[in-house]
Design a protein that fits this description.
The protein folds into 6 domains: 8-72, Orthogonal Bundle (Helix Hairpins); 84-327, 2-Layer Sandwich (D-amino Acid Aminotransferase, Chain A, domain 1), CATH 3.30.470; 332-407, OB fold (Dihydrolipoamide Acetyltransferase, E2P) (Beta Barrel); 445-521, 5' to 3' exonuclease, C-terminal subdomain (DNA polymerase, domain 1, Orthogonal Bundle), CATH 1.10.150.20; 526-624, 5' to 3' exonuclease, C-terminal subdomain (DNA polymerase, domain 1), CATH 1.10.150; 639-706, BRCT domain (Rossmann fold, 3-Layer(aba) Sandwich), CATH 3.40.50.10190. The chain is 37% helix and 20% strand. The chain contains 25 helices and 25 strands. Strand 17 and strand 18 (397-403) form a beta hairpin. Helix 12 (449-460) packs antiparallel against helix 13, helix 18 (540-550) crosses helix 23 (651-660) and helix 19 (553-568) crosses helix 21. Bound molecules: 2-(butylsulfanyl)adenosine (IVH). 2-(butylsulfanyl)adenosine (IVH) binds next to strand 3, strand 8 and strand 13.
Length: 708
């Protein structure tokens, strides 16, 4: 995130307009990362700051408020893969209070709006703000019938099957007094201990770990396969309602009692408070208990208890006037950053890590904090030896918030940090950073010990070599014992039979079965072979394209090496499609191979250690050319044009898939075109197709045609 610079009060009208446009885009991007990908890039505090800046600018220049303003929108549209559910009663968000004054102001606003005098009591219900994701659960005649995520507040995703697996979600309501139609809303969350177990398992399986419980709850609820969700132990705290056929309760506290009677979990800290001070005292009490609660919370929500008042107060833009979220400050502490070390992840990403003088933050001792990447260090000007403020974001990954520059000596103090030119892995190769990308990567790939486990697991995975009996666990064991370091070692494992036969869990039979399964795969299709190498961006479809184009492994290797030579003699700024030589251009000419893909592929061939692994594999394997294209595909031999922005696949993927089915993909529409696949905001090509009478398909129609 680029730091907001100019104070709102100093902005000219033109600057304000530009800034609102920028904020709309930026907030939309972070919404998608948070709601759709469950992988936010910025802390909740930074996100709130963006929204506040947007609101402040709109308050100063109301005429500039945009139709797509983040102030009138929450969340993000549903992701592909789930059916949509329209919320008849919009699922809204809450305004924020950051201190006691804000809370007093909130109640003062309520009084003013309702015309109450100062002595009239305004009862509030205070309860923890659970850091999960909200969901809507519909009940018909007491039976759970439909469940949805919030989505963008108007349209969410149908996650009924997944919600059924939530540990404390009643499938059937207790008692007989529930309205015939009742939509209950609440927060889906995962407990801290279940989260820790989940990440432990994921790590052992070589999968990316979730950053915090909230992200893992969101990722888990939005699995297309409900059996995965079921294994995640999601839970629910219920706290509001949506569409109801009747509403026979007069206060919020009464509603909470009914929820409990129907069988829902209601947070045990929810309490009715007669005054603001009482509510603030509960805020302190909950705040003190926060570190020891089994789930994450990020504040306290206050709600006006009387529903007749709630009805009158109504909503303003995306939040109710009758409720407010009093956020907890992120737990922070001051310490010294002693050293910055670089970690090589399993995917080869180099992550700078701050090694701190140990300090207690919110009851947990913190010694290390992520610094994300090179740019983040430069942006915050973090130097070894600096005094820093650290915080636990989402209560899990500690972050360095800022440097206390006042504590930096005027002379002879810490020097700016220089990102290493040599990778900390034993290969000591120079790391690579793709222009426009934040991540710096180790170029060791197949030969880098940190990446080996991932690479080996990919190599034996179902879509690649698919070696029966050689799963992730065995790969790890063989790797730990150094029996397998590179993929070709798998095919030499028979020489190590006696060694692993002596291990616990192995017998003559199982050892022979494994060795036989390995022998079985000594002959492999060329496309599977390419895919198994795990080259960045080279998925199954592209691997097929390459196999079809280059025919034999040797021809492929020679062409890639020629392209690598052309690429390596160019300076970084000249690495553009039009400037590289013939071999590189030939690669880019393959329909379905984008420049960035070609670049990653060729980068693989610039590394000597990768070539060695490749030659080693060539010696061990018999690689079979690809069979001819299956002509039974309805698009074989047809010319297809993709236009507009596609939602379910990238353009590269769409092309590659079409070509793998024998279609020719073209960039322009003509009389020879058989199909035009129309994405969102399609422009002139769609028009031309219509004029020429070419068959036009929506994305779902295309998927149906090709049977995907
Ligand atoms: S009431 C009309 N109560 O916070 C708004 N929300 O920032 C109704 N949340 O979307 C929401 N705990 O996902 C409410 N006790 C609580 C909550 C809570 C967590 C979430 C909810 C909401 C978000 C707003």
């Amino acid at each position: 995130m680029s730091a907001p610079t100019k104070p709102v009060d100093d902005l000219t009208e033109a600057e304000a307009g530009n800034e609102l446009a920028r904020l709309a885009l930026e907030i939309r991007r972070h919404d998608a990362l948070y709601y759709q990908n469950s992988a936010p890039e910025i802390s909740d505090g930074d996100y709130d700051a963006l929204r506040q800046r947007n609101d402040a600018i709109e308050a100063r220049f109301p005429a500039l408020a945009r139709p797509d303003s983040p102030a009138v929108r929450v969340g993000a549209a549903p992701a592909a893969g789930f059916e949509e559910v329209r919320h008849e009663v919009a699922m809204l968000s809450l305004g924020n209070a950051f201190n006691a004054d804000d809370v007093h102001d909130f109640v003062a606003r309520v009084r003013r709006f309702l015309g109450l005098d100062e002595n009239e009591p305004v009862e509030l219900v205070a309860e923890p703000k659970i850091d999960g994701l909200s969901a809507a659960m519909h009940y018909e005649s007491g039976q759970f019938s439909l469940g949805a995520t919030r989505g963008d507040g108007s349209v969410g995703e149908n996650v009924t099957r997944n919600l059924e697996t939530v540990v404390d979600l009643p499938k059937k309501l207790k008692g007989t007094d529930a309205p015939d139609y009742l939509e209950v809303r609440g927060e889906i969350y995962i407990r801290k201990d279940d989260f820790a177990d989940l990440n432990k398992t994921r790590e052992a399986e070589g999968q990316a770990v979730y950053a915090n419980p909230r992200n893992s709850a969101s990722g888990s609820l939005r699995q297309l396969d409900p059996t995965i969700t079921a294994a995640r132990k999601l839970r629910l705290f219920a706290y509001s309602w949506g569409k109801v056929s009747s509403r026979p309760w007069e206060t919020y506290s009464e509603f909470l009692d009914r929820l409990k009677a129907w069988g829902f979990s209601v947070n045990p800290y929810s309490r009715t408070c007669a005054t603001v001070d009482e509510a603030l005292a509960l805020y302190d009490e909950i705040g003190a208990a926060r570190a020891t609660l089994p789930y994450d919370i990020d504040g306290v929500v206050y709600k006006v208890n009387r529903l007749d008042w709630q009805d009158r107060l109504g909503f303003v833009s995306r939040a109710p006037r009758w409720a407010i979220a009093h956020k907890f400050p992120a737990e922070q502490a001051e310490t010294v950053l002693e050293k910055i070390t670089i970690q090589v992840g399993r995917t080869g990403a180099l992550t700078p890590v701050a090694n701190l003088t140990p300090v207690t933050v919110g009851g947990v001792v913190v010694q290390r904090a992520t610094l994300h990447n090179e740019d983040e260090i430069a942006r915050k000007d973090i130097r070894e030896g600096d005094a820093v403020v650290v915080q636990r974001a989402g209560d899990v990954i500690p972050q360095v918030v800022r440097v206390i520059t006042e504590k930096r000596p005027k002379t002879g103090g810490p020097q700016p940090f220089a990102f290493p030119k040599v990778c900390p892995c034993p290969l000591e190769t120079p790391p690579h950073r793709e222009p426009g990308e934040a991540v710096t990567r180790c170029t060791g790939e197949l030969a880098c010990p940190y990446q080996q486990i991932n690479r080996l697991k990919h190599f034996v995975s179902r879509q690649a070599f698919d070696i029966e009996g050689l799963g992730a666990k065995h790969v790890e064991a063989f790797r730990d014992a150094e029996l397998i370091k590179t993929p070709a070692d798998i095919f030499r494992l028979r020489e190590q039979r006696e060694t692993f036969l002596a291990w616990e869990g192995w017998g003559e039979q199982s050892a022979d079965n494994l060795l036989a399964a390995i022998e079985n795969r000594r002959e492999i299709g060329f496309d599977k072979f390419i895919y198994s190498l795990g080259i960045r961006q080279i998925g199954e479809a592209t691997a097929k394209l390459l196999a079809r184009t280059y025919e034999t492994p040797e021809k492929w290797r020679d062409a890639m090496q020629a392209a690598a030579r052309e690429r390596s003699i160019l300076p970084e700024e000249m690495k553009k499609p039009e400037l590289v030589g013939d071999a590189f251009a030939a690669l880019c000419d393959i329909n379905g191979v984008a420049f960035a893909m070609a670049d990653d592929l060729v980068a693989f061939f610039t590394e000597q250690h990768n070539l060695e692994v490749l030659e080693d594999l060539f010696d061990q394997l018999t690689i079979q050319p690809l069979e001819k294209v299956a002509s039974e595909s309805p698009v074989a031999g047809k010319t297809v044009v993709f236009t507009g922005s596609l939602e379910t696949m990238s353009r590269g993927e769409a092309k590659a898939r079409a070509e793998s089915l024998g279609a020719k993909v073209s960039g322009s529409v003509s009389k020879k075109t058989d199909y035009v696949v129309i994405g969102a905001d399609a422009g002139s090509k769609a028009k031309k197709a219509e004029e020429l009478g070419v068959a036009m398909l929506t994305e779902p129609e295309w998927h149906k045609l090709i049977g995907s």
